[in-house]
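Q: I have two molecules that I believe assemble together. Could you output structure tokens for the complex as a whole instead of separate predictions?
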Amino acid sequence: MNAVTATRQVFGGSGARVRWVGFQTIVLREFSRIIRIWGQTIVPPAITATLYFVIFGSLIGRRIGQMDGFDYMQYIAPGLIMMSVITNSFGNVVSSFFGAKFGKHVEELLVSPLPNWLIVLGYVAGGVLRGLLVGALVTAVALLFTHLPVQHPFLIITSVILTSVVFSLGGFFNAIFAKNFEQISWFPTFVLTPLTYLGGVFYSVSLLPGWAERLSYANPILYMVNAFRYGFLGASDVDIVKAFVVTVGAAIVMFAIVVSLMNRGTGIRD
Amino acid sequence: MKALSIQGLAKTYRNGVQALRGIDLDVEEGEFFALLGPNGAGKTTAIGIISSLVTKSAGTVSVFGHDLDREPEQAKSCLGLVPQEINFNMFEKVFTIVVNQAGFYGIPRRQAREQAERYLRQLQLWDKRDSIARSLSGGMKRRLMIARALVHEPRLLILDEPTAGVDIEIRRSMWEFLRGINHRGTTIILTTHYLEEAENLCRQVAIIDKGRITENDRMGNVIRKLNQETFVLNFRDPLTALPPLPGYDARLVDDHTLEVEVSKERGLNDLFASLSAAGVVVVSMRNKVNRLEELFMRLVESGGAPQGGAR
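A: Yes, here they are, computed for all two components at once.
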């Protein structure tokens, strides 16, 4: 080993600056991970979306006719985009944070001066990045099959970001409690996928029998999908203000829960 | 100034194991401090609590005057940790690992790159900067963890068995490196199973056993407490029987080798006189184990006081 340099550098700066640089570093690391394993993070959702559009939109959709006054392919496109945003935001954070726990490199962050809420925000930003990246790709695929009008661009952007935040936090929550790789697939398999499929991606809930329609309103994904669809088509099964209240509320509650678990050391500290 | 101050630190794990039973420990700034103890004594738990990886059950920890509970960001900024187990992302590049760690301590990217280069060069890993971490050898992985721990220039560096599984040549070059780091002002706390390493490097030593500090003193004072040492003598000619050695507890290991326990009061002169009288020619002599190791074993075996009478 070479001789030690004679002087010790002194790094300082305000807490805010340390936090900002730390946050950027986490996001950059997450982004690098998404790009490094693009074959697992970017390509599969694009292939899945293409298959959905081919089968449900082009082949079956032609026989279904119109839904809420729109061509079926047009109707399901926002739902399919949102579905890929939800699963990829969730999947990015759950696999990245659990991987960090499993490989113990989460300790790099735990020993650092970054507060827990910032660590959570960093991972969530990574999840949102992947959600938006995949969402943009699936939108491009959708545009190969159908025309998508844009009625309320601001609603589209805010609803997709908020939804991505909620499910990134969901992924973090799952990763905190997961003890093995099997457990990171429980929540997506038993909760996320059923709620997404029953959340109005492929149909309007007005088609359901009364009890099923009422039950659907308890599904938060219904509000997110419909807010997003409203941004494109101007049509929704739910009140848009209510949809935003539900999404923002879910984001705040999830963030508080996840940060509190981190502060208690649940799943990360002995 | 105290680099580290621990008061009444206790840890009981959920399974009921009491790893720490209320330890007090002060480490002065600039010190090279050895924290020793047998497996399961509580060393790694103590280090885990200091570095925020383990939640304590009771007590306080402050780093350079910053309480870990009240001022965690300031306290953690002063600290660098080289853990016992490899804990970097095996799929990341060496350079990226070190640069990112600097970022977690708020060092902007450009400076982080400079710092990473500086320490990777010092630890002779610069040629490996673009290698994926898992492709490194065991010794390189250890050095990478040291580079990562130093990249933000911590005032207190904690090394939990940094030379475990490393060959003797690299171990000795690591010692020189750590001496240099300490010489330029970084306080170092070291745990190790190589007691020769602790004796060579550290000026202060604390011994922890069953969750309690049983010894905390200058290295010289601790070594002086060793009242009895075991020596191994090699003879020029073979012996068929043990010559009379009154007052010494001795045994023949083989026909050329004698193992003898010598107390401080007794000394070695009478032993050599007896051997000379018996016509035995001694060609070499060495300690059976290093002195700290001998003391450590006696301390642990006796549950506190060294056998033969600690003073």
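A: One point stands out. Residues 98 and 175 of chain A are 5 Å apart (CA to CA).
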